[in-house]
Design goal:
A hairpin with a 2-residue loop joins strand 1 and strand 2. The longest helix has 47 residues. The protein has one domain. The chain starts with a helix and ends in a 5-residue tail after the last strand. Strands 3-4-5-6-7 form a 5-stranded antiparallel sheet, with helices on one face. Strands 1-2 form a two-stranded antiparallel ribbon. It has 177 residues and is α+β, with helices and mostly antiparallel strands. It contains 3 helices and 7 strands. The chain is 34% helix and 29% strand. Keywords: Membrane, Transmembrane, Transmembrane helix.
């Protein structure tokens, strides 16, 4: 019996199998981390593009006298000038660039039948420059948007909660020269 326990022939097969398993596990974890990071970066870039489009869209309503001040739209209402910024649907712009589908109060991107990522809680705010700046605060037409990103794990690690990130982007209107 002692000879059986001291005989080490074939033990390298078990060690090699263990090493291969660990390498596969770590490479899967590394690929999943890379997927999460690239999904967040791609979504942030798409949100940034949608916000830039929303700010640039305001160009049509610019008041001629403040074009160089990068102000948004103003219209004459009665005897006064009133701010006139159009509200745009940034979710629609995200749907076009990301290929998402509306699902309740969120938009979802599917990978086959699995959820690739989910966007929810979009908030966007347009801030206009003053119509008659006082010289100290000339301001600029800006749009700030925030959205909640949820990316579940794809390697069926059900015990691991999905990645949650709050993406914030800011864009300003700058005319072409």
């Amino acid at each position: 019996m002692r000879k059986f326990w001291n005989d080490r022939r074939g033990s390298g097969v078990v060690t090699a199998a263990g090493v291969v398993f660990l390498l596969l596990f770590f490479s899967c974890a590394l690929m999943e981390y890379s997927r999460l990071q690239s999904t967040a970066a791609h979504t942030r870039d798409a949100l940034q593009a949608a916000v830039v489009e929303a700010c640039t869209e305001q160009n049509a309503g610019l008041y001629d006298g403040v074009r160089e001040g990068y102000s948004g739209g103003y219209k004459r209402s009665g005897g006064n000038w009133a701010e006139s910024l159009s509200s745009t649907d940034i979710y629609d712009r995200l749907d076009k660039s990301l290929g998402t589908e509306k699902s309740g109060d969120a938009v979802v991107k599917y990978a086959g039948s699995d959820v690739n990522f989910r966007l929810s809680g979009l908030s966007a705010q347009m801030t206009n420059a003053p119509f008659a700046p006082d010289g100290k605060d000339t301001g600029q037409l800006t749009c700030t948007a925030e959205v909640e990103l949820e990316v579940p794990w794809m390697f069926h690690w059900d015990g691991v909660p999905p990645m949650h990130a709050r993406l914030t982007v800011k864009a300003g209107y700058m005319p072409k020269f």
